[in-house]
Amino acid sequence: MKRDWIALDQQYILPTYGRMPVVVEKAEGMYITDTDGNKYLDLFSGLAVNILGHCHPQLLKELENQSHGFGHISNFFYNKPAIDLAEKLVEETFVGKIFYANSGAESTEAAIKYVHKYGKEHDREGIVVFKNSFHGRTLGALKMTRMEKIQQDFPTLDISVYELEKEDLQQLEKLFKEKKPAALMFEPVFGSGGVQVISTEFIEGARVLCDTYNVLLCIDEIQTGVGRTGELFAYQYTNITPDILLFAKGIGGGLPLGGMLVAEKIAHYFKPGDHGTTFAPSPIASALGRKTIEIILQEGILEKVQEMEKYLKDKLKNLRQQYPKNIGDIRGKGMMIGVEILQNHEGLKDKFMKKNILVNLTSGNILRLIPALIIEKQHIDDFIDTFSEIITEG
Questions:
Q1: pLDDT tens digits, 273-327
Q2: Is 265 exposed, middle or buried (0-12, 13-18, 19+ CB in 10 A)?
Q3: Which end of the chain has fewer CB atoms < 10 Å from its terminal CB, N or C?
Q4: DSSP structure class, residue 259
Protein backbone atom coordinates (compact mmCIF):
# COMPACT_ATOMS: atom_id res chain seq x y z
CA MET A 1 0.00 0.00 0.00
CA LYS A 2 1.38 3.40 -1.05
CA ARG A 3 1.95 5.74 1.87
CA ASP A 4 0.55 9.28 1.76
CA TRP A 5 3.71 11.09 2.82
CA ILE A 6 2.18 14.55 2.70
CA ALA A 7 -0.66 13.53 5.00
CA LEU A 8 1.78 11.81 7.36
CA ASP A 9 3.95 14.96 7.46
CA GLN A 10 0.92 17.04 8.35
CA GLN A 11 -0.03 14.54 11.06
CA TYR A 12 3.34 14.17 12.77
CA ILE A 13 5.50 17.25 12.03
CA LEU A 14 4.94 20.80 13.26
CA PRO A 15 3.93 23.07 10.36
CA THR A 16 6.85 25.50 10.46
CA TYR A 17 7.54 25.34 6.72
CA GLY A 18 5.46 26.22 3.68
CA ARG A 19 6.27 23.03 1.84
CA MET A 20 5.99 22.46 -1.90
CA PRO A 21 4.01 19.31 -2.80
CA VAL A 22 7.12 17.36 -3.79
CA VAL A 23 8.00 14.15 -1.94
CA VAL A 24 11.63 13.50 -2.77
CA GLU A 25 12.61 9.97 -3.76
CA LYS A 26 16.15 10.63 -4.98
CA ALA A 27 18.38 13.43 -6.23
CA GLU A 28 21.40 13.54 -8.50
CA GLY A 29 23.37 16.43 -9.96
CA MET A 30 21.03 19.30 -10.80
CA TYR A 31 17.84 17.24 -10.50
CA ILE A 32 15.38 15.99 -7.90
CA THR A 33 13.01 13.09 -8.60
CA ASP A 34 9.81 12.64 -6.61
CA THR A 35 7.96 9.50 -5.58
CA ASP A 36 5.75 9.73 -8.68
CA GLY A 37 8.77 9.75 -10.99
CA ASN A 38 8.62 13.47 -11.84
CA LYS A 39 12.07 14.97 -12.42
CA TYR A 40 12.70 18.61 -11.44
CA LEU A 41 15.54 21.00 -12.24
CA ASP A 42 16.64 22.27 -8.82
CA LEU A 43 17.59 25.96 -8.84
CA PHE A 44 17.89 26.55 -5.12
CA SER A 45 20.07 23.58 -4.14
CA GLY A 46 18.85 22.94 -0.61
CA LEU A 47 18.90 26.72 0.06
CA ALA A 48 22.54 27.04 -1.05
CA VAL A 49 23.73 23.88 0.72
CA ASN A 50 24.28 21.46 -2.17
CA ILE A 51 27.14 23.46 -3.68
CA LEU A 52 28.25 20.60 -5.95
CA GLY A 53 24.77 19.32 -6.69
CA HIS A 54 23.11 16.22 -5.33
CA CYS A 55 25.07 13.01 -4.68
CA HIS A 56 28.36 14.20 -6.17
CA PRO A 57 30.38 11.00 -6.80
CA GLN A 58 33.55 12.26 -5.13
CA LEU A 59 31.61 13.33 -2.04
CA LEU A 60 29.87 9.95 -1.89
CA LYS A 61 33.27 8.26 -1.97
CA GLU A 62 34.56 10.55 0.78
CA LEU A 63 31.42 9.83 2.82
CA GLU A 64 32.02 6.10 2.50
CA ASN A 65 35.69 6.39 3.42
CA GLN A 66 35.09 8.45 6.57
CA SER A 67 32.09 6.35 7.67
CA HIS A 68 34.40 3.34 7.85
CA GLY A 69 36.59 5.29 10.29
CA PHE A 70 34.30 7.03 12.78
CA GLY A 71 31.09 9.02 12.51
CA HIS A 72 31.06 10.89 15.80
CA ILE A 73 33.53 11.45 18.62
CA SER A 74 33.52 13.70 21.65
CA ASN A 75 35.35 17.01 21.51
CA PHE A 76 37.54 15.63 24.29
CA PHE A 77 39.49 13.91 21.48
CA TYR A 78 41.39 15.29 18.51
CA ASN A 79 39.35 15.15 15.30
CA LYS A 80 41.60 14.72 12.24
CA PRO A 81 39.01 15.60 9.55
CA ALA A 82 38.07 18.78 11.43
CA ILE A 83 41.73 19.77 11.74
CA ASP A 84 42.27 19.10 8.02
CA LEU A 85 39.31 21.29 7.09
CA ALA A 86 40.39 24.09 9.44
CA GLU A 87 43.89 24.03 7.95
CA LYS A 88 42.47 24.28 4.42
CA LEU A 89 40.11 27.12 5.33
CA VAL A 90 42.90 29.13 6.92
CA GLU A 91 45.22 28.49 3.97
CA GLU A 92 42.61 29.82 1.56
CA THR A 93 41.48 32.83 3.64
CA PHE A 94 43.51 34.40 6.47
CA VAL A 95 45.53 33.35 9.49
CA GLY A 96 43.34 32.59 12.47
CA LYS A 97 41.52 29.90 14.40
CA ILE A 98 38.17 28.20 13.90
CA PHE A 99 35.25 27.34 16.12
CA TYR A 100 32.89 24.77 14.62
CA ALA A 101 29.10 24.73 14.95
CA ASN A 102 26.26 22.78 13.34
CA SER A 103 24.50 25.54 11.40
CA GLY A 104 24.52 29.15 10.34
CA ALA A 105 22.45 30.31 13.30
CA GLU A 106 24.82 28.54 15.69
CA SER A 107 27.74 30.26 13.96
CA THR A 108 26.09 33.61 14.61
CA GLU A 109 25.48 32.68 18.25
CA ALA A 110 29.16 31.85 18.68
CA ALA A 111 30.13 35.19 17.14
CA ILE A 112 27.80 37.08 19.50
CA LYS A 113 29.49 35.50 22.52
CA TYR A 114 32.92 36.15 21.05
CA VAL A 115 32.14 39.80 20.35
CA HIS A 116 30.85 40.16 23.93
CA LYS A 117 34.15 38.96 25.36
CA TYR A 118 36.07 41.29 23.07
CA GLY A 119 33.83 44.21 24.00
CA LYS A 120 34.29 43.72 27.75
CA GLU A 121 38.06 44.02 27.38
CA HIS A 122 37.84 47.09 25.13
CA ASP A 123 34.99 48.93 26.88
CA ARG A 124 32.67 48.48 23.90
CA GLU A 125 29.24 46.86 23.71
CA GLY A 126 26.76 45.85 21.04
CA ILE A 127 26.70 44.97 17.36
CA VAL A 128 25.84 47.06 14.30
CA VAL A 129 23.71 45.33 11.65
CA PHE A 130 21.87 46.45 8.54
CA LYS A 131 18.17 46.95 8.01
CA ASN A 132 16.49 43.92 6.42
CA SER A 133 19.46 41.66 7.21
CA PHE A 134 19.17 37.99 8.14
CA HIS A 135 21.54 36.21 10.54
CA GLY A 136 19.44 33.32 11.90
CA ARG A 137 16.36 32.41 13.92
CA THR A 138 17.72 31.35 17.33
CA LEU A 139 17.17 33.99 19.99
CA GLY A 140 20.59 35.61 19.85
CA ALA A 141 20.80 35.47 16.06
CA LEU A 142 17.19 36.62 15.86
CA LYS A 143 18.08 39.93 17.43
CA MET A 144 20.67 40.44 14.68
CA THR A 145 18.03 39.60 12.05
CA ARG A 146 16.21 42.81 11.16
CA MET A 147 13.12 41.40 9.48
CA GLU A 148 9.87 42.03 11.36
CA LYS A 149 8.11 38.97 9.92
CA ILE A 150 10.83 36.74 11.36
CA GLN A 151 11.43 38.65 14.63
CA GLN A 152 7.71 38.81 15.53
CA ASP A 153 7.24 39.12 19.32
CA PHE A 154 9.72 36.44 20.41
CA PRO A 155 11.77 37.28 23.53
CA THR A 156 14.98 39.22 23.00
CA LEU A 157 18.36 39.03 24.65
CA ASP A 158 19.95 41.84 26.62
CA ILE A 159 22.47 42.90 24.01
CA SER A 160 22.58 46.21 22.19
CA VAL A 161 21.90 46.02 18.46
CA TYR A 162 22.19 49.10 16.28
CA GLU A 163 20.35 49.01 12.95
CA LEU A 164 21.55 51.10 10.01
CA GLU A 165 20.76 51.41 6.34
CA LYS A 166 23.38 49.65 4.24
CA GLU A 167 26.02 51.59 2.28
CA ASP A 168 26.03 54.66 4.59
CA LEU A 169 29.61 55.16 5.79
CA GLN A 170 28.84 58.58 7.24
CA GLN A 171 26.14 57.25 9.55
CA LEU A 172 28.30 54.26 10.39
CA GLU A 173 31.13 56.48 11.61
CA LYS A 174 28.69 58.63 13.56
CA LEU A 175 27.35 55.53 15.32
CA PHE A 176 30.86 54.24 16.02
CA LYS A 177 31.67 57.53 17.75
CA GLU A 178 28.46 57.88 19.74
CA LYS A 179 27.58 54.29 20.73
CA LYS A 180 30.96 52.56 20.88
CA PRO A 181 29.78 49.18 19.53
CA ALA A 182 32.06 46.16 19.66
CA ALA A 183 31.38 44.84 16.15
CA LEU A 184 29.85 45.43 12.74
CA MET A 185 28.15 42.35 11.22
CA PHE A 186 26.77 42.06 7.70
CA GLU A 187 26.24 39.76 4.73
CA PRO A 188 28.26 40.83 1.65
CA VAL A 189 25.20 39.82 -0.38
CA PHE A 190 21.87 39.77 1.43
CA GLY A 191 20.17 36.40 1.10
CA SER A 192 16.69 36.47 2.63
CA GLY A 193 16.85 40.26 2.47
CA GLY A 194 16.41 40.29 -1.30
CA VAL A 195 19.82 39.47 -2.85
CA GLN A 196 21.26 42.95 -2.27
CA VAL A 197 24.98 43.26 -3.04
CA ILE A 198 27.06 45.40 -0.67
CA SER A 199 29.51 47.51 -2.68
CA THR A 200 33.26 47.03 -2.55
CA GLU A 201 33.59 50.72 -1.70
CA PHE A 202 31.45 50.34 1.39
CA ILE A 203 33.16 47.15 2.58
CA GLU A 204 36.62 48.67 2.22
CA GLY A 205 35.46 51.90 3.85
CA ALA A 206 33.91 49.97 6.73
CA ARG A 207 37.21 48.15 7.25
CA VAL A 208 38.99 51.49 7.64
CA LEU A 209 36.40 52.72 10.14
CA CYS A 210 36.55 49.49 12.14
CA ASP A 211 40.32 49.82 12.39
CA THR A 212 40.04 53.49 13.37
CA TYR A 213 37.47 52.91 16.15
CA ASN A 214 38.61 49.48 17.35
CA VAL A 215 35.45 47.73 16.14
CA LEU A 216 35.48 44.11 14.96
CA LEU A 217 34.46 43.52 11.35
CA CYS A 218 32.35 40.34 11.21
CA ILE A 219 31.33 39.19 7.73
CA ASP A 220 28.50 36.69 7.53
CA GLU A 221 29.27 34.38 4.60
CA ILE A 222 26.91 31.62 5.65
CA GLN A 223 25.15 31.82 2.27
CA THR A 224 27.76 33.58 0.12
CA GLY A 225 30.67 31.33 1.08
CA VAL A 226 32.21 28.18 -0.39
CA GLY A 227 32.32 29.43 -3.97
CA ARG A 228 28.75 30.71 -4.21
CA THR A 229 29.74 34.15 -5.57
CA GLY A 230 32.64 33.09 -7.79
CA GLU A 231 35.31 33.51 -5.11
CA LEU A 232 35.74 31.03 -2.27
CA PHE A 233 34.35 33.77 -0.02
CA ALA A 234 32.72 36.97 -1.26
CA TYR A 235 34.95 39.28 0.82
CA GLN A 236 37.81 38.14 -1.44
CA TYR A 237 36.47 40.40 -4.17
CA THR A 238 37.71 43.27 -2.01
CA ASN A 239 41.06 44.29 -0.52
CA ILE A 240 40.05 43.66 3.09
CA THR A 241 40.38 40.88 5.62
CA PRO A 242 37.59 40.44 8.20
CA ASP A 243 38.20 39.90 11.91
CA ILE A 244 35.49 37.23 12.06
CA LEU A 245 34.22 35.17 9.14
CA LEU A 246 31.00 33.15 9.52
CA PHE A 247 30.42 30.07 7.36
CA ALA A 248 27.91 27.22 7.08
CA LYS A 249 25.48 25.87 4.41
CA GLY A 250 27.77 24.57 1.62
CA ILE A 251 30.76 23.93 3.88
CA GLY A 252 29.58 20.48 5.01
CA GLY A 253 29.18 18.93 1.58
CA GLY A 254 25.45 18.51 2.22
CA LEU A 255 25.67 17.69 5.93
CA PRO A 256 25.17 20.08 8.89
CA LEU A 257 28.30 22.11 9.63
CA GLY A 258 29.08 25.74 10.32
CA GLY A 259 31.46 27.88 12.28
CA MET A 260 33.50 31.03 12.52
CA LEU A 261 37.10 31.86 11.69
CA VAL A 262 38.59 34.54 13.96
CA ALA A 263 41.77 36.40 13.01
CA GLU A 264 44.95 35.47 14.83
CA LYS A 265 45.22 38.87 16.53
CA ILE A 266 41.92 38.26 18.40
CA ALA A 267 42.05 34.45 18.66
CA HIS A 268 42.48 34.37 22.45
CA TYR A 269 39.01 35.30 23.75
CA PHE A 270 37.53 31.80 23.97
CA LYS A 271 38.95 29.53 26.66
CA PRO A 272 37.97 25.91 27.47
CA GLY A 273 34.38 25.90 28.73
CA ASP A 274 33.41 29.27 27.23
CA HIS A 275 31.43 27.72 24.39
CA GLY A 276 30.77 24.32 22.90
CA THR A 277 28.42 21.90 21.18
CA THR A 278 28.01 18.13 21.34
CA PHE A 279 27.82 17.34 17.64
CA ALA A 280 30.13 19.82 15.94
CA PRO A 281 32.38 19.33 14.24
CA SER A 282 31.03 16.18 12.63
CA PRO A 283 34.01 14.15 11.35
CA ILE A 284 31.98 13.11 8.30
CA ALA A 285 30.80 16.65 7.49
CA SER A 286 34.36 17.92 8.01
CA ALA A 287 35.76 15.34 5.60
CA LEU A 288 33.11 16.27 3.04
CA GLY A 289 33.91 19.95 3.57
CA ARG A 290 37.59 19.46 2.87
CA LYS A 291 36.78 17.48 -0.27
CA THR A 292 34.25 20.12 -1.39
CA ILE A 293 36.85 22.89 -1.20
CA GLU A 294 39.39 20.73 -3.04
CA ILE A 295 36.94 20.07 -5.87
CA ILE A 296 36.00 23.76 -6.13
CA LEU A 297 39.62 24.88 -6.31
CA GLN A 298 41.05 22.07 -8.44
CA GLU A 299 38.31 21.72 -11.04
CA GLY A 300 37.86 25.37 -12.05
CA ILE A 301 34.48 25.76 -10.34
CA LEU A 302 35.08 29.40 -9.35
CA GLU A 303 35.87 30.39 -12.93
CA LYS A 304 32.81 28.48 -14.13
CA VAL A 305 30.59 30.29 -11.63
CA GLN A 306 31.76 33.64 -12.98
CA GLU A 307 31.12 32.46 -16.55
CA MET A 308 27.64 31.19 -15.70
CA GLU A 309 26.84 34.43 -13.85
CA LYS A 310 27.44 36.44 -17.01
CA TYR A 311 25.49 33.98 -19.14
CA LEU A 312 22.51 33.92 -16.78
CA LYS A 313 22.41 37.70 -16.31
CA ASP A 314 22.63 38.29 -20.06
CA LYS A 315 19.74 35.89 -20.64
CA LEU A 316 17.68 37.55 -17.91
CA LYS A 317 18.36 41.03 -19.31
CA ASN A 318 17.21 39.88 -22.74
CA LEU A 319 14.06 38.50 -21.13
CA ARG A 320 13.51 41.81 -19.33
CA GLN A 321 13.68 43.64 -22.65
CA GLN A 322 10.85 41.41 -23.90
CA TYR A 323 8.78 41.72 -20.70
CA PRO A 324 9.63 45.07 -19.03
CA LYS A 325 6.31 45.11 -17.14
CA ASN A 326 7.09 41.76 -15.51
CA ILE A 327 10.82 41.88 -14.72
CA GLY A 328 12.56 44.68 -12.83
CA ASP A 329 15.98 44.75 -11.23
CA ILE A 330 18.43 41.91 -11.89
CA ARG A 331 21.18 41.71 -9.30
CA GLY A 332 23.53 39.45 -7.39
CA LYS A 333 26.92 37.84 -7.66
CA GLY A 334 27.99 34.45 -8.96
CA MET A 335 25.28 31.84 -8.56
CA MET A 336 23.32 34.03 -6.17
CA ILE A 337 21.00 36.02 -8.40
CA GLY A 338 17.89 38.01 -7.53
CA VAL A 339 15.22 38.92 -10.08
CA GLU A 340 12.59 41.51 -9.16
CA ILE A 341 9.16 40.30 -10.23
CA LEU A 342 6.97 43.35 -10.91
CA GLN A 343 3.63 41.56 -11.23
CA ASN A 344 2.05 38.14 -10.76
CA HIS A 345 4.70 36.92 -8.30
CA GLU A 346 2.02 35.14 -6.26
CA GLY A 347 2.04 31.49 -7.18
CA LEU A 348 5.20 31.84 -9.28
CA LYS A 349 6.92 28.94 -7.50
CA ASP A 350 3.96 26.69 -8.22
CA LYS A 351 3.92 27.69 -11.88
CA PHE A 352 7.59 26.76 -12.21
CA MET A 353 7.04 23.53 -10.28
CA LYS A 354 4.27 22.47 -12.64
CA LYS A 355 6.83 22.84 -15.42
CA ASN A 356 9.37 20.75 -13.48
CA ILE A 357 11.64 23.55 -12.27
CA LEU A 358 12.13 24.34 -8.57
CA VAL A 359 12.77 27.99 -7.67
CA ASN A 360 12.69 30.09 -4.50
CA LEU A 361 11.24 33.53 -3.74
CA THR A 362 12.35 35.82 -0.94
CA SER A 363 11.36 39.28 0.32
CA GLY A 364 7.96 38.83 -1.28
CA ASN A 365 8.70 39.38 -4.96
CA ILE A 366 12.39 38.54 -5.45
CA LEU A 367 13.03 35.38 -7.42
CA ARG A 368 16.19 34.04 -5.76
CA LEU A 369 18.33 31.72 -7.88
CA ILE A 370 20.94 29.83 -5.84
CA PRO A 371 21.62 26.69 -7.90
CA ALA A 372 24.47 24.24 -7.51
CA LEU A 373 27.76 25.54 -8.89
CA ILE A 374 27.87 22.71 -11.43
CA ILE A 375 25.07 24.35 -13.44
CA GLU A 376 25.48 24.28 -17.23
CA LYS A 377 24.24 26.63 -19.97
CA GLN A 378 21.55 24.12 -20.96
CA HIS A 379 20.07 24.30 -17.46
CA ILE A 380 19.96 28.09 -17.71
CA ASP A 381 18.39 27.90 -21.17
CA ASP A 382 15.69 25.55 -19.84
CA PHE A 383 14.96 27.98 -17.00
CA ILE A 384 14.80 31.02 -19.29
CA ASP A 385 12.52 29.27 -21.79
CA THR A 386 10.21 28.20 -18.97
CA PHE A 387 10.24 31.69 -17.43
CA SER A 388 9.22 33.13 -20.81
CA GLU A 389 6.37 30.62 -21.09
CA ILE A 390 5.09 31.47 -17.62
CA ILE A 391 5.11 35.23 -18.32
CA THR A 392 3.35 34.70 -21.65
CA GLU A 393 0.68 32.54 -20.04
CA GLY A 394 0.08 35.22 -17.39
A1: 999 999 999 999 999 999 999 999 999 999 999 999 999 999 999 999 999 999 9
A2: exposed
A3: N
A4: E
From CA 220, how far away is CA 237, in angstroms rounded?
15
- What is the C-alpha separation between 34 and 23, in angstroms, rounded? 5
Cβ neighbours for 314, distance < 8 A, ≥ 6 positions apart? none
Cα–Cα distance for residue pair 345/38, rounded to 1 Å: 24
Separation in Å, CA 227 to CA 143, 257, 293, 304, 334: 28, 16, 8, 10, 8
Compute φ and ψ for 334, nearest 5 degrees: 60, -135
Sorted by where each starts, the structural domains of the chain and their CATH numbers stand as 5-56+300-393 (3.90.1150.10), 58-298 (3.40.640.10)
Query: Which pLDDT tens digit goes with each residue over 78-100?
Result: 999 999 999 999 999 999 999 99
> In percent, how much of the chain has pLDDT > 90?
88
Could you give the CA distance from residue 292 to residue 254 in angstroms, rounded to a whole number?
Answer: 10
Query: DSSP characters for 65-84?
Result: HHHTT-S---TTS--HHHHH
